[in-house]
Amino acid sequence: MLKTLERYRKASYGGLEHNPPANDAELSSYQEYVRLKGKYEVLQQYQRNLLGEDLGPLSVKELDQIENQLESSVKAIRSTRNHFMCDQLLELQKKEQMLREANRMLKKKVDEKAAAIHDPQQLLWGAEHKQITFNHQIQNPQTDQRFFRPLECNSTLQTRYNPDGPDSTNVPPLPQNHNGFIPGWML
Fold first, then answer.
1. Would you say residue 70 lies in a domain?
2. Cβ atoms of residues 132 and 181 within 8 Å
3. The whole model's pTM is what?
4. What is the C-alpha separation between 138 and 169, in angstroms, rounded?
5. I want to staple 133 with a disulfide (CB 3.0 to 4.6 A). Which of 58, 111, 146, 180 is the partner?
6. Which of left, alpha, beta for 161 (phi over 0: left; psi -120 to 50: alpha)?
C-alpha cells in the first residue's frame, strides 16, 4: 500500500520536481513540503482503510495487516479499560469498607446512648411508679370533693348535677380506689 501511494506521489508531484527552485533553502523547504504532504496523504488513506473505507484496491496481505492492527488496538483498549475498571473497583471497595466501619462505629455509639438513656429512665420510671402507687391519698376528702372529683377506674360515666350548690356539705363521698391506680392520661 505504501509503495502504491509512493508511486502516486511521484506521478502527481514528479512534474513539479523537474522545475527546481532557484536556491538551496527553497529547494529544501519544497522537498520537505512534498515529503510531508505525501506522508499526510498516506496517513489519511491508512485512516480510511482502518475505518473500513476504500478497501477494494487493497491486497489480502494488506487486509490481514489492517485486521491485525485493529485486533491489537482493540486488545490494548480493552486492557486499558479493564485496568481502569479494576482500579475503580478497588477504590470503591476501600470506600465501602470505610463506610461499613463508620456505620459500625455510629451504630455502637447509638446503642451506647440508647442504653444510657434507657436504663436511667427505667430506674426513674420505677421510682415514680412506686411513689404514685403508695402516696396517692386525698388529704381532706370532704373539702376537696366539692371542687374536685377524682376519676375512678370504672367503665360507667358518672356526671352529676348538684342542685344544692357548691356550699352543700352533705355530698356523699365517692368510693375511693384504694389500689392506687391512676389513669394513664394523668401520668
1. yes
2. no
3. 0.38
4. 17
5. 180
6. beta
